[in-house]
Sequence to fold (150 residues):
Amino acid sequence: MTDLRDLYQEVILDHNKSPHNYREMTDATRMALGYNPLCGDKMKLYAKIEGDRIADVTFQGSGCAISKASASIMTDAIKGKTLAEAEALYGKFHDLLTGPPDVKADGAGLGKLAVFSGVREFPARVKCATLAWHTLQTVLKNTQDVAKTE
Ligand code: ZN
Fold:
């Protein structure tokens, strides 16, 4: 289990060092701001929605390794998905991080997102890992509100 945890940590650090989809999108159809006051993580999420599909998604921001890695892996995971598929993935990810402690964390169907399963042991860090997803909710709902984890 220790090996798996080290591997997960390595994936998170890699994405923090060289985040994927980290750029401004000048032709975005939707944009949302996210802020996690507990840690100070800030992010701007850009999306290009075509029909009911997320044609492209990028982000920019500043924050801790977990928040940045989470946004990086999330954008990889939802690019090309429909809005409903992205919503379903959010539900699974949320369950993985905040499910009851007696339920074993199950990363099935989550791909790389499963690297955040260890975060559930650190409640303060759960907010860092879910910030990108909260911000995505704002994008999916197409509101102008700033997404907050509180
Ligand atoms: Zn953070």
